Amino acid sequence: MKTDRSFLQCSSCGVSRRRFLSGCARCAAAAGALTLPGWSRSAEVTAPKVKIRIIYALHAPVQPGPDWPNKGFDFRPVMEAIGTILAQRCPEFEFLASMATGPEQAKEILAADESASIEGYIVCQMNCWNRVVQTIAATGKPVLYVDFKYGGSGGFLVYNAAFLREGAGNVGFVSSSSADDLVEAVKCFGLMKEGLSARRFSEVTSVARRGRTPFPSTSGIVPDPMPTTAIPECLRQMKESRILAVRGTESGWAEPVLGISVYNVAFAELNDAWKSADKDQAGALADRWQREATDITDVTRKTLEESAAMYLAQKALLKKYIANAITIDCLGGFYGGHIHAYPCLGFHQLLNEGMVGACEADVRSTSAMIILTILSHGRPGYISDPVIDTSKREIVYAHCVASNKPFGPRGKASPFDIMTHSEDRQGASVRSILPVGYLTTTVQFDQKRKEVVMHRARTVANDLDDRACRTKLCAEPIGDIEKLFRYWDQWGWHRVTCYGDFRNAVMELAATLELKVVEEA
User: Fold this and answer.
1) What is the C-alpha separation between 389 and 395, in angstroms, rounded?
2) Quick one: pLDDT band at residue 19, thresholds 50, 70, 90?
3) Other residues' Cβ atoms within 10 Å of the Cβ of residue 180
4) What is the CATH number of domain 231-519?
5) Is the pLDDT of residue 35 over 90?
6) How far is it, in rounded angstroms, from Cα 254 to Cα 243?
7) pLDDT (tens digit, 9 = 90+) per residue, 371-417?
8) The pairing of beta strand 416-421 with beta strand 426-432
9) CA of 228: how far to CAs of 237, 371, 510, in Å?
10) Which of 116, 282, 441, 512 could make a disulfide contact with 502, Cβ separation 3.0–4.6 Å?
């Protein structure tokens, strides 16, 4: 299926995607600081136009700090492109556009709209966590909630799942990179003039979305026979596992997770281990990464050596505390000045060696990575921030680190690139080009909920888009992609993926641990 990419291009300038992302003078001049002008390029129509307000939920027109899509990202040509597309292809509507950083500005927009005869709203989630759509949805008017792919996807999935669970009938949604899907959903506002209740808006947009979502692929799955570890042995290895959680200023034991012990390590101890790492060993590892990487972009030799020293520091702590997994509050540590090198390449190396290195001090995901590695006899788990694109019937697993040995330490290596960390263009991280055509299993375990959430998917591509995290593995869910939108508000954004079919093994383990399995697709 050929996808309309115009949602990601500046149609008013006719420029390439690369030039569009860097901005253009015509688009920049057309965008305002807080309230954008309405677009009136369409031909006159005889019927009264339905007034629709577009609200872009974002930090600023040009992103000031690290977040998806990335620091310095220029949203102005994107917003101009969306406005141009809708004005040209939906001439029966009058579009007014504004920006809001959060609920206070959203309330100001609504107050100004009281006399403007606005009949519906389009809320585009451009950055992840700006809480704008909740205020707009509370009006009861029809709201079309739109994800800007690789920009607002985390907040979109979490916030939209809450609307679905609460049965917010006035909120429809678009999670697609195709302009055609956006246009068809916007046309549903026209039914309001024909007497459709706002409470049924989600229904009609659902029909439009489902009708444009491709059917499941008939392509085969690459054979990947793999015996799983027996559950009693899995439980034994879980009990013998230990997670180091590097965060804060205090060290000490934390609450175990599913029988896996957890020990908190202060940032200072990791930083001291990094400073005292053997420089010759760090240089040798940097040499190895330079030889093995397909490409290195914007990462200096000094940064490689600092990253190698961070790997050696992680290994030293794992040895000291007799642990097989480490997770670090990488962003908080780096931005807070507690650590001075990103741990991404160190995590990459640990995963290739059969151990676990996990991002963001996410102990829950780290425990899932341990479990999948045990069940699979050594295959690495891949922690990610997923994105869903209905135009391709895909879920994209995105993060700035991944193993390039998805079948285990003795398995075949895949190509990988070394690049800066995506959100802030600093340090060193990994873009792993993972194999396609294989079945994967994605899980998250929650001890307090006494549940496991799980889905399976067939890998289909690696997305090299410069926005958001570096590694982006695209996969087609096995089952109902619509159902896959429903659980993010209860489970959070992170998921853990592993190559192989572990459905039956996860079911058996969950039954033994008395956990309910939620099959999210």
Assistant:
1) 6
2) very low
3) 16
4) 3.20.14
5) no
6) 10
7) 999 999 999 999 999 999 999 999 999 999 999 999 999 999 999 99
8) antiparallel
9) 13, 11, 15
10) 441
Measured between its terminal Cα atoms, the distance across the chain in Å is: 22
pLDDT tens-digit map of 436-464: 999 999 999 999 999 999 999 999 999 99
What is d(CA 124, CA 173) in angstroms, rounded to the nearest whole number? 10
* Sign of the alpha-carbon torsion through 45, 50, 55, 56: negative
Q: Distance between CA 200 and CA 135 in Å, rounded?
A: 19
* CATH code for the structural domain at 6-212: 3.40.50.10830
Average pLDDT value for residue range 177-201? 93
How long is the chain?
521
User: Please, what is the Cα angle at 313 between 312 and 316, to 5 degrees?
Assistant: 85
How many whole angstroms from its chain centre is CA 341? 23
Take residue 327 and report the two structure tokens written for it: 């997770």
Rounded CA gap, 274 and 271, in Å?
A: 5
108 within 8 A of 135, measured Cβ to Cβ: no
Tokens encoding 169: 């009938």
Question: Is the Cβ–Cβ distance between 450 and 514 less than 8 Å?
Answer: yes
3-state secondary structure of 465: coil
Q: What stretches of 126-259 adopt beta strand conformation (E)? A: 143-147, 171-174, 242-246, 252-257
CATH 3.40.50.10830 boundaries in the chain: 6-212
Residues 6+ away with beta carbon under 8 Å from 473: 382, 384, 396, 397, 398, 402, 434, 459, 462, 497
User: What pLDDT is stored for residue 29 in this prediction?
Assistant: 30
Q: Which SS3 state, helix, strand or coil, does residue 95 take?
A: strand
Closest CA to 439 of 390, 494, 503, 509: 503
Region(s) of the chain under CATH 3.20.14: 231-519
Kind and range of the H or E run holding 179: helix 179-186
**16/401 Cα distance (integer angstroms):** 29
Q: Angle 344-352/301-320 helices, nearest 10 degrees?
A: 60
- Give the pLDDT confidence score for residue 194 in this predicted structure: 83
